[in-house]
Amino acid sequence: MAKPTIEAISEENLREFADFLVQHMSYQRSREEWIEGLSANWAAERPNFGYMLRDEGRVVGGIGAIYADRLIRGRTERFCNITSWCVLDDYRKFSMQLAMRLVAQEGIHLTDFSPTKVVAGALQFLKFQPLDEAVIVLPNLPIPSFGWRVETDSGRIDRDFSGDLAKKWLDHAAFPWLNQILLGRPGNWCHIIYKRRSFKGLPSASILYLSDGESFLQGLATLQLHFLLRGMVSTHVERRMLPAVPRIAKIRTGFNTKQFKSDTLTSDDIDYLYSESVALDL
User: Fold this and answer.
1) Torsion sign across C-alpha atoms 241, 243, 246, 247
2) What is the pLDDT of residue 176?
3) In CATH, what number does 135-252 get?
4) What is the pTM of this model?
5) Least enclosed by CB within 10 Å: which of 6, 15, 65, 187?
6) Is the pLDDT of residue 41 over 90?
7) Per CATH, which fold does 5-130+259-279 belong to?
8) CA distance 42 to 195
9) SUPFAM superfamilies given for it (predicted)?
10) pLDDT (tens digit, 9 = 90+) per residue, 155-174?
């Protein structure tokens, strides 16, 4: 076997990579859906859409990349979120070379939020760090609460909010699988983004992002009642998002560990916004 070549994925060849993913990834997505998801970009400059392997002109593997410029602790930081890493069996030995092309980019923090066990092992070899994968499961009980409310009117964002909260809300408003709410009271709002999912055959709310763990816990009863009235019987939130575990809760573990690589950031700086988790509905 001749050694395959590695090339950057660009607008010109993204269609070929999307066709490859349609054939070889387990997700049921059309070519157009792959192209739309992989085209998500929140960076001022996008160097590529990832990298792919070719053997005599045929695509035999690839790894997607979604870029974002994020404001972290007052500094603009560049992120590259690895996604859709897929290499045909006969070419697996070239997978690390593919990943190293992304890792070699300077001045970028890297994340992977959907690694398989094999990929997670490869990333740790490249000095990625694991994120706490434990998930807190909360029953949505009909407990009345006072002083806190849930705001769902997206029209209020333009009128009454500005800054980071408004930017994050508006940046993610175009994804129909995301639900956004504000929990709190005037002057003290927690921005929450969640997805409706199923747990043990019953509807649930899976928290993708929350802006303030303390406020989330203080207004938890109000939030749980809000979800229950909309047919969701449980709330699922990663343990690392909260400062403490609520009293009535169970903890699930055993998930594939999400990973990140950074010389300056910690796990507290990592969330799932501006990534495959929102753009590809993972």
Assistant:
1) positive
2) 95
3) 3.40.630.30
4) 0.93
5) 187
6) yes
7) Aminopeptidase (3.40.630)
8) 21
9) Acyl-CoA N-acyltransferases (Nat)
10) 777 666 778 888 999 999 99
